[in-house]
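The following record pairs a protein chain with its ligand, 5'-deoxyadenosine.
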Amino acid sequence: MNMYDSEKMAGILLEEGYALTDESQKADLIVFNTCSIRQKAEQKFKSELGRAKYLKKTNPSLKIAVAGCIAQQQGRAMLKKYPNIDYVLGPQNIHKLKDALKTDITKIFVEENPEVQYMDLPVLRKESVAAWVSIMYGCDNFCSYCIVPYTRGRERSRPSKNIYTEVYRLASDGFKEVTLLGQNVNSYRSDMDFVGLLKLLNTVEGIERIRFVTSHPRDLSDSLITCIKELPRVCEHIHLPLQSGSDRILKLMNRGYTFDHYIKKIERLRKEVPEIAITTDIISGFPSETEADHKATIDALKTIEFDGIFAFSFSPRPGTPALEMEGRLPDDVKSQRLYEILDIQDEITTNKNMKFKGTIQEILVEGVSKTDSDKLSGRTRGNKIVNFRADNSCAGRLVSVEIVKVMRHSLEGKAI
Ligand code: 5AD
Ligand code: SF4
């Protein structure tokens, strides 16, 4: 979501006559698009800001803008503490970047924006075959650990017409894949629901693949499962954050489901769409998590066998209910549990990937591989990365590839 917001800010700046540069010494403007989902991201930002301060000494006309969720939550305090910052923009106000640049005085834009879903901002996308498209903003779920509802505001869905127009244009521009973005895409509701939207977008000629993130387990309906099964352009992959395998912790997290509910959804998904790839998010070391709760998460991973997970140590965030909860765990316990989770999942992912060996997969080729410049790289419909040797003319196309080798985080293939 943040990376997509950065593309929008770049789009706005391009219209204002700016161009991107990789060299910060040459920049007239540096925009930090910050994330505050966990503390680590905040620390990274603070050290980068320190570096930018020195650039201002050699280039006094350099402007510094801080956008994103840290700006939203700490903007006012930040302006006092770091007088080198020129503009502060919360995630609901990135369109104000244009106005901000036209003023000489420091500006702060952090108010709630009830019109955020109607804004069609220009987007500077990187050259690729795959594009992100926002379908909704904000979140109303208030999971007890999560800062998003406080920084991105209330849940608001974009009108389907605007989304359709954007996807249609992307197809005309040669994009072949869209990933629909929202904090909780299955609760999308404008003039239609999420299933209606998928059916509508499935009609756009030229778009070969439709993905979506993130789905909330509580709102995953049978009709969405049927869509994944029946709509040819909708990929067989779902990211369905579990967070914990313990019902007690899920309740404290305010997730709105039990492990039993969750696993029933998984069973249904796998029954209807046997080839579906399922990935998840896990938080280790939530306040008061016992060894037994942690074991419930490990057991859940072993039972479900996800295709991949993103796992994080619990990070206390300002303003969230979990910050005040009893039983905060020491860092070493949290990281030890996290490593255990990651180790077990590594083994599961490798074993699952082994099943692909010898199979033929449809790959949408994104370009040259990041790890080996002699190879091309693309993804399966289930979102697995495949590297393989082929000439550059394959870039941007769908090709059939035989999987010949399995690595921990990717597959190696042979074009056929
Ligand atoms: N601490 C650790 N992980 C968190 N996430 C969200 N908030 C926190 C937090 N305070 C994780 C959740 C979510 C993912 C995007 O980030 O797992 O699904
Ligand atoms: Fe945060 Fe929960 Fe909303 Fe996801 S669903 S953004 S974890 S509050």
